[in-house]
Amino acid sequence: MRDVQLLAKGFSPGKALGLFAKAHPDAGGIASFVGKVRPEADVKVLELKAYPRMTLPGMEALAADVEARWTLDGLLIHHRHGVMRPGAPIVLVAAAARHRRDVIEAVDFAMDHLKSASWFWKREKRGDGWHWIEPREQDHADLSRWA
Amino acid sequence: MRDVQLLAKGFSPGKALGLFAKAHPDAGGIASFVGKVRPEADVKVLELKAYPRMTLPGMEALAADVEARWTLDGLLIHHRHGVMRPGAPIVLVAAAARHRRDVIEAVDFAMDHLKSASWFWKREKRGDGWHWIEPREQDHADLSRWA
Amino acid sequence: MAVAVVFLGKLADLSGAAEASLPGPLDWAGLLEALPPSLADEVRGERVRVALNGELLAEKTALRAADGSEIALLPPVSGG
Amino acid sequence: MAVAVVFLGKLADLSGAAEASLPGPLDWAGLLEALPPSLADEVRGERVRVALNGELLAEKTALRAADGSEIALLPPVSGG
Protein backbone atom coordinates (compact mmCIF):
# COMPACT_ATOMS: atom_id res chain seq x y z
CA MET A 1 0.00 0.00 0.00
CA ARG A 2 1.35 3.40 -0.99
CA ASP A 3 0.20 6.52 0.89
CA VAL A 4 1.70 9.77 -0.42
CA GLN A 5 0.30 13.08 0.78
CA LEU A 6 1.22 16.74 0.45
CA LEU A 7 -0.42 18.39 3.44
CA ALA A 8 -1.42 22.03 3.78
CA LYS A 9 -2.27 21.74 7.49
CA GLY A 10 -0.71 20.35 10.66
CA PHE A 11 -0.80 16.60 11.16
CA SER A 12 -0.03 14.02 13.85
CA PRO A 13 2.88 11.75 12.85
CA GLY A 14 2.08 9.40 15.75
CA LYS A 15 -1.48 8.92 14.58
CA ALA A 16 -0.50 8.43 10.95
CA LEU A 17 2.20 5.93 11.97
CA GLY A 18 -0.26 4.03 14.16
CA LEU A 19 -2.70 3.68 11.25
CA PHE A 20 0.15 2.62 8.97
CA ALA A 21 1.23 -0.09 11.43
CA LYS A 22 -2.36 -1.28 11.77
CA ALA A 23 -2.66 -1.50 7.97
CA HIS A 24 0.39 -3.82 7.82
CA PRO A 25 -0.10 -6.40 10.56
CA ASP A 26 2.01 -9.01 8.73
CA ALA A 27 5.12 -6.91 8.18
CA GLY A 28 8.00 -8.07 10.34
CA GLY A 29 9.49 -4.59 10.47
CA ILE A 30 8.44 -0.96 10.29
CA ALA A 31 10.94 1.88 10.11
CA SER A 32 10.01 5.53 10.31
CA PHE A 33 11.42 9.02 10.37
CA VAL A 34 9.70 12.15 11.65
CA GLY A 35 11.21 15.55 10.88
CA LYS A 36 10.11 18.64 12.75
CA VAL A 37 10.83 22.35 12.63
CA ARG A 38 13.86 22.74 14.89
CA PRO A 39 13.53 25.40 17.54
CA GLU A 40 16.34 27.86 16.77
CA ALA A 41 17.14 31.01 18.66
CA ASP A 42 15.97 33.58 16.16
CA VAL A 43 13.50 31.66 13.99
CA LYS A 44 9.87 32.53 14.55
CA VAL A 45 8.28 30.49 11.76
CA LEU A 46 9.35 28.39 8.80
CA GLU A 47 7.58 28.42 5.46
CA LEU A 48 7.83 25.64 2.92
CA LYS A 49 6.49 26.66 -0.45
CA ALA A 50 5.41 23.88 -2.75
CA TYR A 51 4.27 23.87 -6.36
CA PRO A 52 1.68 21.13 -5.85
CA ARG A 53 1.33 20.49 -9.57
CA MET A 54 4.94 19.25 -9.53
CA THR A 55 5.64 18.64 -5.84
CA LEU A 56 3.05 15.91 -5.38
CA PRO A 57 3.85 14.06 -8.64
CA GLY A 58 7.51 14.29 -7.63
CA MET A 59 6.72 12.65 -4.27
CA GLU A 60 4.77 9.93 -6.08
CA ALA A 61 7.68 9.32 -8.45
CA LEU A 62 10.04 9.09 -5.47
CA ALA A 63 7.70 6.53 -3.85
CA ALA A 64 7.69 4.48 -7.05
CA ASP A 65 11.49 4.59 -7.15
CA VAL A 66 11.70 3.41 -3.52
CA GLU A 67 9.26 0.57 -4.23
CA ALA A 68 11.32 -0.48 -7.24
CA ARG A 69 14.54 -0.63 -5.18
CA TRP A 70 13.26 -2.42 -2.08
CA THR A 71 10.64 -5.09 -1.50
CA LEU A 72 8.10 -3.38 0.69
CA ASP A 73 4.64 -4.20 1.96
CA GLY A 74 3.86 -0.53 2.44
CA LEU A 75 5.32 2.94 2.07
CA LEU A 76 4.07 6.22 3.54
CA ILE A 77 5.31 9.72 2.67
CA HIS A 78 3.50 12.67 4.25
CA HIS A 79 4.99 16.13 3.78
CA ARG A 80 3.77 19.51 4.93
CA HIS A 81 3.88 22.77 3.05
CA GLY A 82 2.87 26.22 4.26
CA VAL A 83 3.80 28.12 7.40
CA MET A 84 4.95 26.12 10.44
CA ARG A 85 6.00 26.99 13.97
CA PRO A 86 9.04 25.51 15.75
CA GLY A 87 8.27 21.98 16.89
CA ALA A 88 5.66 21.37 14.18
CA PRO A 89 6.04 18.15 12.17
CA ILE A 90 7.20 18.64 8.57
CA VAL A 91 7.62 15.12 7.27
CA LEU A 92 6.81 11.52 8.12
CA VAL A 93 8.24 8.65 6.11
CA ALA A 94 7.49 5.04 7.04
CA ALA A 95 8.15 1.69 5.38
CA ALA A 96 6.84 -1.77 6.25
CA ALA A 97 8.36 -5.00 5.01
CA ARG A 98 9.41 -8.50 5.88
CA HIS A 99 13.07 -7.57 6.28
CA ARG A 100 14.70 -5.04 8.55
CA ARG A 101 17.34 -3.74 6.17
CA ASP A 102 14.77 -3.04 3.45
CA VAL A 103 12.68 -0.73 5.62
CA ILE A 104 15.58 1.17 7.16
CA GLU A 105 17.28 1.75 3.81
CA ALA A 106 14.00 2.70 2.14
CA VAL A 107 13.33 5.40 4.76
CA ASP A 108 16.92 6.63 4.55
CA PHE A 109 16.75 6.88 0.74
CA ALA A 110 13.35 8.59 0.74
CA MET A 111 14.48 11.19 3.28
CA ASP A 112 17.69 12.00 1.41
CA HIS A 113 15.67 12.61 -1.76
CA LEU A 114 12.94 14.61 -0.04
CA LYS A 115 15.56 16.84 1.60
CA SER A 116 17.47 17.76 -1.52
CA ALA A 117 15.67 16.71 -4.67
CA SER A 118 12.04 17.56 -4.09
CA TRP A 119 10.11 20.65 -5.15
CA PHE A 120 10.10 22.69 -1.95
CA TRP A 121 11.43 26.17 -1.27
CA LYS A 122 12.12 27.14 2.30
CA ARG A 123 12.24 30.48 4.08
CA GLU A 124 12.54 31.48 7.71
CA LYS A 125 11.07 34.46 9.49
CA ARG A 126 13.63 35.93 11.86
CA GLY A 127 13.63 39.10 13.90
CA ASP A 128 14.67 41.07 10.82
CA GLY A 129 12.19 39.52 8.40
CA TRP A 130 12.03 36.63 5.92
CA HIS A 131 15.13 34.82 4.63
CA TRP A 132 15.24 32.23 1.85
CA ILE A 133 17.24 29.10 2.69
CA GLU A 134 19.73 27.89 0.12
CA PRO A 135 20.30 24.16 -0.46
CA ARG A 136 22.70 22.64 2.06
CA GLU A 137 25.93 21.05 0.86
CA GLN A 138 25.41 18.19 3.32
CA ASP A 139 22.07 17.34 1.72
CA HIS A 140 23.73 16.98 -1.66
CA ALA A 141 26.43 14.80 -0.13
CA ASP A 142 23.73 12.61 1.45
CA LEU A 143 21.99 12.25 -1.89
CA SER A 144 25.15 11.28 -3.74
CA ARG A 145 25.48 8.19 -1.52
CA TRP A 146 22.77 6.54 -3.63
CA ALA A 147 24.17 7.33 -7.05
CA MET B 1 17.74 10.70 27.84
CA ARG B 2 18.45 6.96 27.65
CA ASP B 3 15.60 4.45 28.09
CA VAL B 4 16.69 0.80 27.90
CA GLN B 5 14.26 -1.91 28.93
CA LEU B 6 14.15 -5.70 28.78
CA LEU B 7 10.45 -6.53 28.89
CA ALA B 8 8.86 -9.77 30.04
CA LYS B 9 5.37 -8.81 28.85
CA GLY B 10 3.70 -7.43 25.74
CA PHE B 11 4.11 -3.73 25.04
CA SER B 12 2.77 -1.06 22.67
CA PRO B 13 5.51 0.35 20.42
CA GLY B 14 3.19 3.17 19.32
CA LYS B 15 2.60 4.28 22.88
CA ALA B 16 6.28 4.07 23.82
CA LEU B 17 7.26 6.00 20.68
CA GLY B 18 4.65 8.66 21.42
CA LEU B 19 6.04 9.19 24.91
CA PHE B 20 9.58 9.28 23.53
CA ALA B 21 8.60 11.96 21.00
CA LYS B 22 6.88 13.95 23.74
CA ALA B 23 10.03 13.75 25.87
CA HIS B 24 12.12 15.28 23.06
CA PRO B 25 10.14 18.25 21.75
CA ASP B 26 13.29 20.02 20.56
CA ALA B 27 14.76 17.21 18.46
CA GLY B 28 14.55 17.96 14.75
CA GLY B 29 14.35 14.29 13.85
CA ILE B 30 13.19 11.01 15.33
CA ALA B 31 13.88 7.68 13.66
CA SER B 32 12.45 4.40 14.84
CA PHE B 33 12.29 0.72 14.05
CA VAL B 34 9.67 -1.75 15.27
CA GLY B 35 10.28 -5.47 14.82
CA LYS B 36 7.46 -7.96 15.23
CA VAL B 37 7.06 -11.73 15.16
CA ARG B 38 6.50 -12.50 11.49
CA PRO B 39 3.49 -14.66 10.77
CA GLU B 40 4.94 -17.77 9.11
CA ALA B 41 3.02 -20.75 7.86
CA ASP B 42 4.00 -23.31 10.48
CA VAL B 43 5.11 -21.17 13.43
CA LYS B 44 2.70 -21.09 16.35
CA VAL B 45 4.78 -19.12 18.85
CA LEU B 46 8.28 -17.74 19.18
CA GLU B 47 10.27 -17.78 22.39
CA LEU B 48 13.18 -15.48 23.11
CA LYS B 49 15.20 -16.59 26.11
CA ALA B 50 17.26 -13.96 27.83
CA TYR B 51 19.77 -14.13 30.65
CA PRO B 52 18.72 -10.84 32.20
CA ARG B 53 21.86 -10.62 34.33
CA MET B 54 23.84 -10.24 31.07
CA THR B 55 21.17 -9.35 28.51
CA LEU B 56 20.17 -6.06 30.10
CA PRO B 57 23.75 -4.86 30.83
CA GLY B 58 24.56 -5.82 27.22
CA MET B 59 21.71 -3.62 25.99
CA GLU B 60 22.95 -0.77 28.21
CA ALA B 61 26.48 -1.17 26.85
CA LEU B 62 25.10 -1.08 23.30
CA ALA B 63 23.19 2.12 24.11
CA ALA B 64 26.38 3.69 25.49
CA ASP B 65 28.24 2.70 22.32
CA VAL B 66 25.52 4.26 20.14
CA GLU B 67 25.59 7.47 22.19
CA ALA B 68 29.38 7.62 21.82
CA ARG B 69 29.19 7.30 18.04
CA TRP B 70 26.36 9.73 17.31
CA THR B 71 25.23 12.98 18.89
CA LEU B 72 21.76 12.17 20.17
CA ASP B 73 19.21 13.93 22.35
CA GLY B 74 17.62 10.62 23.27
CA LEU B 75 17.84 6.88 22.65
CA LEU B 76 15.25 4.21 23.40
CA ILE B 77 15.79 0.44 23.25
CA HIS B 78 12.92 -1.80 24.38
CA HIS B 79 13.24 -5.54 23.80
CA ARG B 80 10.92 -8.39 24.72
CA HIS B 81 11.84 -11.80 26.00
CA GLY B 82 9.55 -14.73 26.71
CA VAL B 83 6.88 -16.38 24.58
CA MET B 84 5.30 -14.31 21.77
CA ARG B 85 2.61 -14.93 19.20
CA PRO B 86 2.86 -13.98 15.50
CA GLY B 87 2.31 -10.24 15.12
CA ALA B 88 3.53 -9.41 18.64
CA PRO B 89 6.16 -6.65 18.90
CA ILE B 90 9.66 -7.86 19.82
CA VAL B 91 11.74 -4.72 19.67
CA LEU B 92 11.45 -0.95 19.45
CA VAL B 93 14.48 1.25 18.87
CA ALA B 94 14.16 5.03 18.56
CA ALA B 95 16.64 7.89 18.41
CA ALA B 96 16.06 11.64 18.63
CA ALA B 97 18.56 14.25 17.53
CA ARG B 98 19.11 17.49 15.75
CA HIS B 99 20.29 15.81 12.55
CA ARG B 100 18.54 13.31 10.35
CA ARG B 101 21.52 11.14 9.47
CA ASP B 102 22.48 10.70 13.12
CA VAL B 103 19.13 9.23 14.13
CA ILE B 104 18.75 6.94 11.11
CA GLU B 105 22.28 5.56 11.45
CA ALA B 106 21.94 5.16 15.21
CA VAL B 107 18.78 3.06 14.80
CA ASP B 108 20.39 1.04 12.01
CA PHE B 109 23.49 0.32 14.12
CA ALA B 110 21.50 -0.55 17.24
CA MET B 111 19.27 -2.99 15.32
CA ASP B 112 22.21 -4.75 13.67
CA HIS B 113 23.81 -5.29 17.08
CA LEU B 114 20.60 -6.37 18.79
CA LYS B 115 19.95 -8.91 16.04
CA SER B 116 23.29 -10.64 16.10
CA ALA B 117 25.36 -9.62 19.10
CA SER B 118 22.95 -9.53 22.01
CA TRP B 119 22.25 -12.22 24.61
CA PHE B 120 19.07 -13.77 23.27
CA TRP B 121 18.34 -17.34 22.27
CA LYS B 122 15.41 -18.00 20.00
CA ARG B 123 13.21 -21.02 19.42
CA GLU B 124 10.03 -21.58 17.45
CA LYS B 125 7.15 -23.90 18.18
CA ARG B 126 6.02 -25.57 14.98
CA GLY B 127 3.57 -28.40 14.33
CA ASP B 128 6.24 -30.94 15.30
CA GLY B 129 7.47 -29.16 18.46
CA TRP B 130 10.15 -26.67 19.48
CA HIS B 131 13.15 -25.80 17.27
CA TRP B 132 16.13 -23.66 18.25
CA ILE B 133 17.08 -21.01 15.70
CA GLU B 134 20.72 -20.74 14.72
CA PRO B 135 22.33 -17.33 14.04
CA ARG B 136 21.67 -16.07 10.51
CA GLU B 137 24.56 -15.43 8.14
CA GLN B 138 22.83 -12.25 6.96
CA ASP B 139 22.82 -10.85 10.50
CA HIS B 140 26.58 -11.32 10.77
CA ALA B 141 27.03 -9.64 7.39
CA ASP B 142 24.89 -6.71 8.58
CA LEU B 143 26.99 -6.41 11.72
CA SER B 144 30.29 -6.42 9.83
CA ARG B 145 29.25 -3.23 8.01
CA TRP B 146 30.14 -1.28 11.15
CA ALA B 147 33.57 -2.82 11.80
CA MET C 1 -7.02 33.39 -22.93
CA ALA C 2 -3.57 33.99 -21.49
CA VAL C 3 -0.50 32.25 -20.12
CA ALA C 4 -0.12 31.91 -16.35
CA VAL C 5 3.38 32.36 -14.96
CA VAL C 6 4.10 30.94 -11.49
CA PHE C 7 7.09 32.31 -9.57
CA LEU C 8 8.51 29.89 -7.02
CA GLY C 9 10.78 30.55 -4.04
CA LYS C 10 12.59 33.85 -4.02
CA LEU C 11 11.49 34.60 -7.60
CA ALA C 12 8.10 35.48 -6.11
CA ASP C 13 9.83 38.15 -4.00
CA LEU C 14 11.63 39.53 -7.06
CA SER C 15 8.45 39.66 -9.11
CA GLY C 16 6.39 41.05 -6.26
CA ALA C 17 3.70 38.41 -6.83
CA ALA C 18 3.34 34.65 -6.81
CA GLU C 19 1.70 34.60 -10.23
CA ALA C 20 1.35 36.71 -13.32
CA SER C 21 -0.84 36.48 -16.40
CA LEU C 22 0.75 37.25 -19.76
CA PRO C 23 -0.77 37.32 -23.23
CA GLY C 24 -0.22 34.05 -25.09
CA PRO C 25 1.19 32.37 -26.98
CA LEU C 26 4.59 32.98 -25.43
CA ASP C 27 8.10 31.78 -26.26
CA TRP C 28 11.35 32.14 -24.26
CA ALA C 29 12.25 35.54 -25.71
CA GLY C 30 8.71 36.80 -25.18
CA LEU C 31 8.73 35.67 -21.58
CA LEU C 32 12.03 37.41 -20.79
CA GLU C 33 10.83 40.59 -22.48
CA ALA C 34 7.63 40.60 -20.42
CA LEU C 35 9.46 40.28 -17.09
CA PRO C 36 11.09 43.15 -15.18
CA PRO C 37 14.81 43.28 -16.20
CA SER C 38 16.24 42.16 -12.82
CA LEU C 39 13.86 39.20 -12.73
CA ALA C 40 14.62 38.34 -16.37
CA ASP C 41 18.34 38.26 -15.53
CA GLU C 42 17.70 35.84 -12.68
CA VAL C 43 15.46 33.63 -14.82
CA ARG C 44 18.09 33.51 -17.56
CA GLY C 45 20.63 32.07 -15.05
CA GLU C 46 21.44 28.39 -15.30
CA ARG C 47 20.18 27.65 -11.77
CA VAL C 48 16.58 28.52 -12.67
CA ARG C 49 14.62 25.76 -14.37
CA VAL C 50 11.35 26.06 -16.24
CA ALA C 51 8.28 23.82 -16.35
CA LEU C 52 5.38 23.98 -18.75
CA ASN C 53 2.07 22.60 -17.49
CA GLY C 54 3.87 20.77 -14.71
CA GLU C 55 6.51 19.19 -16.96
CA LEU C 56 10.13 20.21 -16.53
CA LEU C 57 11.69 21.46 -19.77
CA ALA C 58 15.01 19.86 -20.72
CA GLU C 59 15.95 23.06 -22.57
CA LYS C 60 14.14 26.11 -21.23
CA THR C 61 14.97 28.29 -24.24
CA ALA C 62 12.76 25.91 -26.29
CA LEU C 63 9.71 27.16 -24.35
CA ARG C 64 6.51 27.41 -26.43
CA ALA C 65 3.56 28.23 -24.19
CA ALA C 66 0.12 28.13 -25.84
CA ASP C 67 -2.84 30.12 -24.62
CA GLY C 68 -4.22 28.63 -21.41
CA SER C 69 -0.98 26.98 -20.39
CA GLU C 70 1.02 27.47 -17.18
CA ILE C 71 4.72 28.28 -16.94
CA ALA C 72 6.55 27.69 -13.65
CA LEU C 73 9.88 29.36 -12.90
CA LEU C 74 11.82 27.16 -10.48
CA PRO C 75 14.89 28.36 -8.56
CA PRO C 76 17.07 25.77 -6.76
CA VAL C 77 15.04 23.83 -4.21
CA SER C 78 16.04 24.17 -0.58
CA GLY C 79 14.65 20.82 0.48
CA GLY C 80 11.81 19.54 2.57
CA MET D 1 26.27 -22.79 49.98
CA ALA D 2 26.60 -24.01 46.41
CA VAL D 3 27.30 -22.87 42.88
CA ALA D 4 24.34 -22.15 40.58
CA VAL D 5 24.74 -23.22 36.95
CA VAL D 6 22.44 -21.59 34.38
CA PHE D 7 21.92 -23.34 31.04
CA LEU D 8 20.97 -21.00 28.19
CA GLY D 9 19.38 -21.79 24.84
CA LYS D 10 19.48 -25.40 23.74
CA LEU D 11 21.82 -26.32 26.60
CA ALA D 12 18.74 -26.18 28.84
CA ASP D 13 17.17 -28.90 26.67
CA LEU D 14 20.30 -31.04 26.88
CA SER D 15 20.52 -30.68 30.64
CA GLY D 16 16.79 -31.20 31.13
CA ALA D 17 16.62 -28.10 33.35
CA ALA D 18 17.27 -24.36 33.13
CA GLU D 19 19.41 -24.40 36.28
CA ALA D 20 21.39 -26.76 38.45
CA SER D 21 23.01 -26.41 41.84
CA LEU D 22 26.45 -27.96 42.29
CA PRO D 23 28.66 -28.12 45.37
CA GLY D 24 31.24 -25.35 45.41
CA PRO D 25 33.89 -24.25 44.96
CA LEU D 26 34.05 -25.46 41.35
CA ASP D 27 36.69 -25.20 38.63
CA TRP D 28 36.46 -26.06 34.91
CA ALA D 29 37.38 -29.73 35.35
CA GLY D 30 34.96 -30.06 38.26
CA LEU D 31 32.15 -28.51 36.25
CA LEU D 32 32.65 -30.85 33.28
CA GLU D 33 32.78 -33.83 35.61
CA ALA D 34 29.52 -32.85 37.26
CA LEU D 35 27.63 -32.52 33.96
CA PRO D 36 26.13 -35.44 32.00
CA PRO D 37 28.74 -36.55 29.38
CA SER D 38 26.79 -35.36 26.30
CA LEU D 39 26.27 -31.95 27.86
CA ALA D 40 29.93 -31.76 28.97
CA ASP D 41 30.98 -32.46 25.35
CA GLU D 42 28.81 -29.61 24.12
CA VAL D 43 30.05 -27.22 26.81
CA ARG D 44 33.69 -28.07 25.96
CA GLY D 45 33.07 -26.97 22.33
CA GLU D 46 34.52 -23.63 21.26
CA ARG D 47 31.08 -22.16 20.43
CA VAL D 48 29.94 -22.29 24.05
CA ARG D 49 31.08 -19.39 26.22
CA VAL D 50 31.05 -19.16 29.99
CA ALA D 51 30.18 -16.31 32.33
CA LEU D 52 30.80 -16.09 36.06
CA ASN D 53 28.48 -13.81 38.03
CA GLY D 54 27.37 -12.13 34.81
CA GLU D 55 30.91 -11.50 33.50
CA LEU D 56 32.03 -13.29 30.36
CA LEU D 57 35.26 -15.24 30.87
CA ALA D 58 37.99 -14.61 28.31
CA GLU D 59 39.28 -18.15 28.89
CA LYS D 60 36.61 -20.49 30.16
CA THR D 61 39.05 -23.18 31.31
CA ALA D 62 40.28 -20.64 33.89
CA LEU D 63 36.91 -20.88 35.68
CA ARG D 64 37.10 -20.66 39.48
CA ALA D 65 33.60 -20.47 40.96
CA ALA D 66 33.40 -19.79 44.69
CA ASP D 67 30.49 -20.86 46.86
CA GLY D 68 27.43 -18.68 46.20
CA SER D 69 28.49 -17.73 42.68
CA GLU D 70 26.60 -18.25 39.41
CA ILE D 71 28.00 -19.87 36.28
CA ALA D 72 26.18 -19.29 32.95
CA LEU D 73 26.77 -21.57 29.96
CA LEU D 74 26.12 -19.59 26.78
CA PRO D 75 25.66 -21.21 23.37
CA PRO D 76 25.78 -18.97 20.25
CA VAL D 77 23.08 -16.30 20.38
CA SER D 78 20.39 -16.39 17.73
CA GLY D 79 19.59 -12.72 17.89
CA GLY D 80 16.73 -10.58 19.08
Concise overview:
The complex is a heterotetramer, with two copies of chain A (147 residues) and two copies of chain C (80 residues). Chain A is α+β, with helices and mostly antiparallel strands.
Architecture overview:
The complex is a heterotetramer, with two copies of chain A (147 residues) and two copies of chain C (80 residues). Chain A has 147 residues and is α+β, with helices and mostly antiparallel strands. In chain A, helix 2 runs antiparallel to helix 3. Chain A is globular, with a radius of gyration of 16 Å. Chain A starts with a strand and ends with a helix. Chain C has a single domain, classed as Ubiquitin-like (UB roll). Chain C has three helices and seven strands. In chain C, the strands form two sheets. Chain C has a five-stranded mixed β-sheet with strand order 2-1-7-4-5. Chain C has a two-stranded antiparallel sheet with strand order 3-6. The longest helix of chain C has 8 residues. Chain C is globular, with a radius of gyration of 11 Å. In chain C, 32% of the residues are buried. Chains in contact: A-B, A-C, B-D. Chains A and B meet through helix 1, strand 2 and helix 3 of A and helix 1, strand 2 and helix 3 of B. Chains A, B: One of its GO terms (biological process) is Mo-molybdopterin cofactor biosynthetic process. Chains A, B: It catalyses: 2 [molybdopterin-synthase sulfur-carrier protein]-C-terminal-Gly-aminoethanethioate + cyclic pyranopterin phosphate + H2O = molybdopterin + 2 [molybdopterin-synthase sulfur-carrier protein]-C-terminal Gly-Gly + 2 H(+). Chains A, B: Pathway: Cofactor biosynthesis; molybdopterin biosynthesis.
The largest sheet of chain C has its strands arranged as 2-1-7-4-5
Helical residue percent band of chain A:
25-40%
Q: What's the Cα radius of gyration of chain C?
A: 11 Å
CATH architecture descriptor text of chain A: Alpha-Beta Complex
* CATH-defined architecture of chain C: Roll
